[in-house]
Write a structure and sequence with these properties.
Mean pLDDT: 90
Radius of gyration: 23 Å
Shape: globular
Distance between the termini: 57 Å
Strand order of the largest sheet: 8-7-6-4-5-10-11
Low-confidence stretches: none
Oligomer: single chain
Strand content: 15-25%
Length: 520
């Protein structure tokens, strides 16, 4: 887009307009922070980083903590200093954290006290210059604690560098369902356009509020509702981590107007005894993303009068890519289109293409690809994977989709998860959608396994409700009139729990490793 000098200091801009309005409410601490507070705190952090810790434009600032106000201080401070914020999944193994930290080489690593043992064990394996313990530590663990920064004498407006829209502001890691997560480079341009796209597409304004249920090491934690709502002058409710009953209490007490989650946490909510009496009256609508959301989950929210629908996005492409404008739909429309993830949000260019790269027609399966100002800038220190994903300006998602005559998109599955039975392509989400309707099924993952006759056949790995008994013949009878014969899994394996990552996303690669053999 060319060299455009840019000041992405949204805390400063918003604080001039909404100085005394509450921006963030920490439910755990029962502490509110105004936009003026965010500006002052981010100035203190910015000046401390520059004056005391000698950070410079392009340095990485790492975070290893649950959701907390310090994340937001760091987001705005990195905008002021031209540094790059990289948030790590603190629940990853030590080996994974070491690999990611050594790849990105943050100059400073902020961490929460409860992770001190893990951090101590990796210190000798990484080259971090300074460690900072975030607020609330009961003992002095490092030379610098966050209280020292908040007590710094210099809270003057921090304007340490001029930036280009294409400068990188964040490194956000991909899901990491197989291998060490890659670091997606997110520019100031991408963050701005994602926020504005959502504000305009979903008609957000300063009266809106959202409850952040996803972790801030996940792109949706930042870019779906959180940053857009803060840009409008709205209110964000946070707590350290998701717990279903607590989430219901927070929704009832703090009354968010919009909310995002993933199917795993929504299933935890509907399985909570308190769900039936829960108060969702404040919510205009709820979006679900990251993975397909089973119909039974949607129905539980619909039955409570909540407009609930699936959306689509990915770290590399947005993630504000496809959504319904739920304010414009009635419940009947939402129910009729439950398999769809809506239409492209503003500023997105999208195509569904065949293997030759040619755009396909209505209701034809193909790979969905994206271009435009919302997309990422490549993977940190990984030119090979960048070249595979970012081709001729288009993000190749690996997701198979189709678009109907009304312009609504449906995500069919992942190219790499598709299997071929007797020469026919079979997409697991199509099968999983029907299996989820079985009254005994809690969660399911369908994979392809080798077969001498058909090449590959389906295998369903299922966890059941209340340890109910389920056998293959029972499942076969249930699916007989719902799926084609090649789609009905040949094998069934019942397990206690399906593996998921800490963002609640099913780890299909691990499922394949654990259960990818034919069975009875």
């Amino acid at each position: 887009m060319g060299a455009t000098l840019w000041n992405p200091d949204y805390s400063y801009f918003r604080s001039r307009i909404s100085m005394n309005k509450e921006a963030i409410f920490d439910y755990d601490a029962k502490q509110g922070y105004t936009y003026g507070d965010l500006e002052r705190r981010s100035n203190l952090l910015s000046n401390y980083l520059v004056d005391k810790l000698d950070v410079k434009k392009g340095d990485r600032i790492g975070f290893c903590a649950r959701n907390c106000i310090e994340h937001f201080d760091a987001y705005y401070a990195t905008a002021k200093t031209g540094t790059i914020l990289t948030t790590y999944n603190q629940l990853l193994s030590e080996n994974e954290l070491v690999a990611m930290i050594n790849n990105e080489r943050p100059k400073i690593l902020f961490y929460e006290e409860i992770y001190k043992n893990k951090i101590e064990r990796i210190k000798s394996q990484v080259s971090v210059e300074t460690y900072v313990v975030v607020s609330g530590a009961r003992e002095r663990l490092e030379a610098v604690h966050y209280e020292d920064i908040m007590a710094y004498s210099n809270d003057k407006y921090a304007d340490h560098t001029e930036l280009d829209l294409e400068d990188i502001h964040m490194i956000i890691h991909t899901g990491g369902t197989t291998g060490v997560p890659k670091g997606a480079m997110i520019s100031h341009r991408a963050l701005l356009f994602n926020a504005v796209s959502e504000v305009l597409t979903l008609d957000l304004n300063s009266t809106d509020s959202t409850y952040l249920m996803l972790p801030l090491f996940h792109t949706a934690g930042w870019n779906v509702f959180t940053l857009p709502v803060l840009l409008t002058g709205g209110r964000v409710i946070i707590n350290k981590c998701f717990e279903p009953k607590l989430a219901l209490d927070i929704i009832a007490a703090e009354k968010p107007s919009v909310m995002l989650g993933v199917s795993t946490i929504f299933r935890m909510m509907i399985n909570t005894p308190e769900f039936d009496e829960a108060d969702f009256s404040s919510l205009k609508w709820i979006l679900s993303g990251a993975a397909p959301t089973p119909l039974d989950i949607m129905e539980k929210f619909w039955d409570k009068g909540v407009k609930f629908a699936a959306a689509y996005g990915m770290t590399e492409a947005g993630p504000n890519n496809l959504s319904f404008t739920l304010d414009q739909l009635n419940m009947e429309n939402i129910r009729e289109n439950y398999e769809s993830v809506g239409k492209p949000m503003l500023f997105n260019q999208v195509k569904v293409v065949d293997q030759a790269g040619e755009e396909v027609g209505v209701d034809v399966h193909g790979e969905i690809i994206w271009r435009g100002p919302l997309i990422f800038s490549g993977y940190w220190n990984d030119e090979i994977e960048t070249a595979r994903t970012l081709r001729n300006g288009w993000v190749h998602t690996g997701d198979v989709a189709k678009v109907d005559e009304d312009g609504n998109y449906c995500i069919v599955g992942r190219q790499k998860n598709m299997f071929i039975t007797g020469g026919e392509n079979v997409f697991p989400p199509v099968i999983e959608k029907e299996i989820y309707k079985h009254p005994k099924v809690h969660e399911v993952c369908v994979i392809g396994v080798s077969d001498a006759k058909w090449g590959e056949v389906g295998k369903a790995i299922v966890s059941t409700k209340s340890n109910a008994h389920l056998d293959r013949e029972d499942l076969k009878r249930f699916l007989k009139d719902k799926l084609g014969s090649i789609q009905i899994p040949k094998y069934l394996q019942v397990v206690d729990e399906l593996p998921k990552n800490s963002a609640g996303k099913l780890q299909r690669g691990i499922v394949q490793q654990l259960y990818g053999q034919a069975s009875s």
